[in-house]
Every structure is written in C-alpha cells, then in structure tokens.
Design goal:
Structural class: alpha/beta
Strand content: 15-25%
CATH superfamily of the largest domain: HUPs
Low-confidence stretches: none
Mean pLDDT: 96
Helix content: 25-40%
Number of domains: 3
CATH architecture of the largest domain: 3-Layer(aba) Sandwich
Radius of gyration: 31 Å
Shape: elongated
CATH class of the largest domain: Alpha Beta
Strand order of the largest sheet: 12-27-28-29-25-26-13
Largest sheet: 7 strands, mixed
Bound molecules: adenosine-5'-triphosphate, magnesium ion
Amino acid sequence: MSDSENRPTNFIRQIIDADLESGKHNHVQTRFPPEPNGYLHIGHAKSICLNFGIAQDYKGLCNLRFDDTNPEKEDIDYVNSIQADVNWLGFEWAGKVHYSSDYFDRLYGYAVELIEKGLAYVCFLNAEQTREYRGTLKAPGKNSPYRDTSAEENLALFEKMKAGGFQEGECSLRAKIDMSSSFMCMRDPVIYRVKFAHHHQTGDKWCIYPMYDFTHCISDAIEGITHSLCTLEFQDNRRLYDWVIENISIETEPRQYEFSRLNLEYTVMSKRKLHTLVEEKLVNGWDDPRMPTIAAFRRRGYTPGSIVEFAKRIGVTKMDNTVEMGVLEACIREDLNDNAPRAMAVLDPIKLVIENYDQDNVEQLSVKNHPSDESQGSRIVPFAKNLYIEAEDFREEANKKYKRLVLGKAVRLRGAYVVTATGCDKDADGNIITVYCTYDSKTLGKNPDDGTKPKGVIHWVAAEQALDAEIRLYDRLFTVANPAAAEDFHTVINPESLVVIEHAKVEPSLANAKPEQAFQFERQGYFCLDNKDSSTEHLIFNRTVGLRDTWSKING
Ligand code: ATP
Ligand code: MG
C-alpha cells in the first residue's frame, strides 16, 4: 500500500484537498494551541494527531503555540510538560515554540486600530450590569452607555488601562459589533480586561490581557496558519474570529474549522475536574497512571504508537460521541502483544518444592522472549529445586476445567519441565503455603515418554534467584461510564482503581528493565517499569492492561 492510501481521510482533509486543488492555498500550516493550565490529556492527543498529522501528510508545518492569556491559571511546569508530551508522541513543531504572549504588543496595536475605526470602546459597566445589558438567547441586548464615546477619548482610556490607571473589573475594552445578534459572542464581546497578574513569559510588563477570541485569530494570522482546527464549542465564535480578521489590517486570512471533542468512557476530561483530582489528592499527581493525561498513559506503559493508532481509529467528525475504553485498550494490547518481550512474575507466591531435584543444582534455561517473533531472541531463566508459583495455580482437588496444578496430576512449568504434585503444607488458617512435586527430567522442551501431555502450563520463578517487586494494578478511575454526568463525581470514584501488591516475585532478568519498558508477564497481562518511583533496590511495575478485555465481559 502506498503512503497516501494509508492516510486517514476526514472532512477536514477533504477541505484541505479542495483548497490545494483550487489554488486557494499552496501549502498547509496548522497549529496546536494548548493553554498551559494543566497537563495534556488524551483528548488533546486527538487534536495533536490531527494537527501534526495533517502537517506531516501534506508536507506542511505545524506550530506549537501556547495560548497564554490567563496568567493566573498558567504555569511554566505545564509549558514544559506539554512540550515533553508532544515530543513523546513523536511530533516536532515548526521552528521555535510560539506563545500568544509573543504578540501582546501587536495585539495591543490591533486593539488601537479597532478603537481608531470606531469599532471598540472602553466600557465601565460592572459585571452584573454587563450581564443584564447582554440580554438572553430570547431577548436582544441593550447598548452600553459607553458605546458612543469618541475614538480620541477611548484611545486615552485604553492607554490609561494599559498604564495601570484602572482597577481590575472597573472597565474593559469591548468590540463594537451588534447587541442584538443571535450569536451571544457577537454582542460587544470583551477583548481586553485589566489583570494585575505576573505572567510566566512577560513578567510584570502588562496589566491588561487580551481575551481568547481576540488573541487566537490574530495569532493564527500572524503565524500564517491556513487551517485553524478547534473543537465544536467554538462554532459560534467563528463569527467573531472572522469579524476580527476582517476589521484589522492583516494580510493573511486563516479559516477556522471545528470537529467534535473526544470523550472517553470511565474518565473525565474537563481540566477543572482533573485539577480537583490532583489537588484533593484523589490521585497521586497529574501522571498518576489512572489519570487520562498523556503523561499518565506513558507512565502506565502506553506507547506513542498506540495513542497515534487510537486517534486514527476514532477518526475526526462533527458528531459528538463517547468512545469505549476498550478501543484504546485494544490499541495498546495489539502493540504490546507484538512487541513486548515475555517474562515471568508471580504476584501471589506460594512455594513449590521439587522433591527429586538436587538441592545444589541451578539450571540456566534459555527461554524465548516471544512465542512467534524469533527476532526478539531469548533470555536465561534460572531453574532450581525451590520455586514460587501463583497460589491460584494449585488446588488439592479440581474438576477438568481447571488446567493447572492439582494433587496427583501433572502440569508444565513454562519453558521448563513437567511436574506432578505430591502433597502440600498449610498454615494454621488452612492456607496452602508450600506445594511438593516431582519433576520428569526428560521433559525439557518435549512431552513425557509415556505419551501423556499435561493440559496446563503455569508460570514460576526460582525462589532464591527471584527478585522482589512491587506491582501496581490499575483499574478504571470511575465506576460509571459517564462520571461527568454524576452530580458529584466523588461518589463514583472506583475505590479499587489501584491495588498494590507489595511482595511479588519476578524473574532475575527484570533487574535490567528500563523505565517505561513493557513486558508481558506470562498469563498476567502487560506491565512496565514505573518511570518515577522504581529503583534497583525496589522494583515497581505498573499494569498497563490485562491480556484480554475482561472488563466488557464483567460489565457488558
Ligand atoms: P479548557 O478546559 O481549559 O478550556 P481545553 O480542553 O479547551 O481547555 P486547551 O489547552 O485550550 O484545552 O486545548 C488545546 C487544543 O486541544 C484546543 O484546540 C482544543 O480544542 C483541543 N482539545 C481540548 N480537549 C479536546 C478533546 N477532548 N478532544 C479533542 N480536542 C481537544
Ligand atoms: Mg480551551
């Protein structure tokens, strides 16, 4: 298949195709414009894949622009995390990082131009009056008494605003458009407000800050953006976007197109709610693997490729919908099934003692890293008299459906020998703590001579050689598919979203695991080494996803 056949198609790409064909544009320039007021989430990943993906496929460029007009809510930590996330997803922005604040001087100039043209005025209505004058969806608004102030006077007032001559909330600069427009955003929207706030880029230079609707379109025009892609809630604002561009002296004419946001089941995407989760310590920070942030997916073991593939599968439309978690999980499961080396880890260990195995012997078995991909090679796994197996993999008695170790019956130890259980010890509470067995020394890599083939295969680790590890089992953060609909989302948080196993036993090769490196723990699921808390002395693995989609079976 050629590269172009492999590309996704959607209504935005069709618009671009038509624009290139008609000669309206001869190149494509997009941008990704996050506000640095939180970490990026999987919804942003959709927008990143769309904007950077289009630039890649059309041999165009995509800018990274921080939309930083709300200094009080923004932080340099977010600026840094956002850049790291975009790079991690595999994308590169064109040239330097842009900031809307780079354009504060020019934005001020365009505001002055609107004032000079009689298209903007300084308004002294207070918040309550402004609301009252704005009218409602059913009733038109009323003109502000300050609407007809002369341009000269407005210029002086705006200059005074800039110089710090007014208090916050005392006045604002408004565009003079139409107080009876059926689009509320056209009823003389505020384009500048007074804010005595320190800015992470411009310091204390400004005490007036431009509003999003005024800033975004002009930033797009300055950067020569051809297609400005945003989510559907900005559909009405497109009138204002076009109005500003038409009424200022700027050459380029960017166009805004809207697509539907990504919503994902069992999680929340509102930044306000994500902030609450972090601030109230309901999770352990923005990159807690239960969060829907890109940093969290990364820490949990998702690969960039799986997220890009997810964005491709969900597509881009104008229809609002909520995507099942299973779609995202399928993407990472398919990736890891192909690419993650296998390893053995026992999460709930009991001892398995091989009675007829030499106490002093340790065999170094060579075990394949992947069942079908030879290129992944093999590793050495030590085998000895004392092993650990999962408590749930042994029963004194069981019916035929139980294909694991049963008293008097045989099972294969993965990559090693066939063993037959002979007895067990229990503690005072009746829990099995040690299982005894015999092994058949002729069964390494082949079936027993008597022609019997054990039905089950179980995983194991050598007791003395195994490493201790902490394992973090993550599940959905919420118990309901649509937590945003709950009156109070605290009531639908899943109390079992994190289960910590403190004393798991893992095979010694995992001492070499790198942060974020993924493994399939045989019969358990996909895990990766935690990128923050793990150390050589204290290994920590995070469960990325189970082997199968058990969730839909239980809850579906
Ligand atoms: P806020 O909740 O603070 O308004 P936001 O979610 O709109 O934030 P921004 O940082 O302004 O976040 O978003 C950057 C870009 O990502 C915007 O173009 C926005 O439309 C897009 N985006 C945000 N959320 C989603 C989502 N769930 N699906 C697709 N795109 C999204
Ligand atoms: Mg926004």
